[in-house]
Amino acid sequence: MAKSDSIVRRKRLGVEELAGQLAGGSEIALARLITLVENDPDGMPRVLPLIQQHLGKAFCVGFTGPPGAGKSSLVSRVTKVMRERGKKVGIIAVDPTSPFSGGAFLGDRIRMQEHYLDPGVFIRSMATRGSLGGLARATKDGIKLMDVYGCDYILVETVGVGQTELDIMQTTDITAVVLVPEGGDSVQAMKAGLMEIGDVFVINKSDRPGAESLAVQVQAVLMMNPRYGSGAPPVLLTQGVSGDGVAELVDVIQAQQLNLNSSELEARRREKRKQEFEEIFKWAAAQEWKKLAGSDGTVKKQLDEVVKGLKDPYTALKEIFPDGFIKRYERTPS
Amino acid sequence: MEQKRPIKVLVAKPGLDGHDRGANVVAMGLRDEGMEVIYSGLRQTPEKIVNTAVQEDVDVIGLSILSGAHNRLFPEIIKLLKEKGKEDTLVVAGGHILEKDIPFLQEVGISAVFGHGVSVKSIAEYIRNNVAL
After folding, report:
1. Is B80 inside a domain boundary?
2. Segment A182-189 long-range contacts (CB within 8 Å, at least 24 positions apart)
3. Contacts of residue B39 in chain A, CB cutoff 8 Å?
4. d(Cα B30, Cα B120) in Å, to the nearest integer?
5. Residue B1 included in any domain
């Protein structure tokens, strides 16, 4: 093993400069900013005010479904069709972080090799880093950055554990649920959660036996849901490897984009902004709590008594905040 | 000890050789060492490798090559990294690389060449010591 002394240090780049380059379509600025928001909790708070007014042009589609459904190949095919239609595409592919080592094998990108040299396609892999909803915490921020960069469509591929992935619905404009005709999927498919978050359902690997009957079963389950009435989401058959059915899938995506236009899309986005603010508020409150628990005498004393089993947490909380939780802080009347 | 962010590594196979067992072993091993690893797939051109490195904003590129074309391909990769503004990346290599070629490669910008019998742990250690987070 031959070595040379070569500690590599990352370039230090100004956030304002990077944000400016991002709006100008610089690929490396987008990449560096995604890294910044992934790793620095102060990253997005600094960047977002600079790009806020540029947001809203991209349409974001989530792809979720059980592992092995062929999501990555499908996303790659969908990208190909979108490129043929002259659209710029951003892709975020999420894979799980190992709870033991903290590392991750980010293996979705390898299915999208045909796009490696296309300047109109930007692919970024993200590890969940402990997030449990199927997406990485930085995924929302990555979507915003790709929006400002100039992507027409942003495709987000989840980890793929199946029924627990509700994050995707709150993060994207529409969601495609990808299923395959194997492994008892017809039963799995009917479990709540997955069946209720899709705007379009895709039976991938449609060359395999059972595809048609699964499509029919899924359709039946969707129509039974009173939420949909006669407007149940479409169920499509695709083959990610050959590309069969993918053009029709993109047609559906573009049709939903048009139909969702103005009021309903804006309503969904408002709901998402509200949820995001709530999430950030809760996160900031949790950080404040950590500080208090470490530095405030009253809080430390109460915490100590709870930990020792001498006091219940509700009583302790009341003693810290005798006038109510918010009153302890300065507050502007509404 | 302060928890540092995971190091991001691209394990890439430049050129035409189809042997990726070693690359896979290193990729999985680095994941077990707490790094986030992307594997490029086989038969990558220098341009594809650099594009991936830029988009993923990796800290390290590990080049695995067994075809003997390293003297031609590696300088091309380093050159493209500079052109794209991504020269602040640690580039290391492994596979079938002749000892006598190593000085040339180091001069070109390959920081380390990991020959046969090297443990993945020592590769991880080298990376941790040479990437300033």
Report:
1. yes
2. A182/A208, A182/A210, A183/A66, A183/A68, A185/A66, A185/A214, A186/A210, A186/A213, A186/A214, A186/A217, A188/A66, A188/A162, A188/A163, A189/A214, A189/A217, A189/A218, A189/A221
3. 105, 107, 110
4. 7
5. no
Q: Nearest CA to A82 among A207, A310, A252?
A: A252
Tell me the pTM. Answer: 0.88
Q: Which residues of chain A have pLDDT under 70?
A: 1-5, 161-166, 183-193, 229-230, 261, 325-334
Least CA distance to B46: which residue of chain A? A117
The predicted complex's ipTM stands at 0.94
Chain A nearest C-alpha distance from B69 (Å): 19
In whole angstroms, what is the distance from residue A221 CA to residue A169 CA?
19
Residue B1 pLDDT grade (very low, low, confident, very high; cuts 50, 70, 90): very low
Residue B47 belongs to what domain range? 8-130
How many domains does the structure of chain B reveal?
1
Q: Are A237 and A215 in contact (CB under 8 A)?
A: yes
Contact A106 B37 (CB under 8 A): yes
Q: Which of residues 96-125 of A touch B (CB under 8 A)?
A: 97-98, 101-107, 109-110, 113, 116-117, 122-125
Q: Is B109 a member of any domain?
A: yes
pLDDT digit string (tens) for A102-137?
Answer: 999 999 999 999 999 999 999 999 999 877 777 787
| Separation in Å, CA of B15 to nearest CA in chain A | 15
Which CATH number belongs to the domain containing residue B17 in this structure? Answer: 3.40.50.280
pLDDT tens digit sequence for A153-183? 999 998 876 555 667 777 899 999 999 887 5
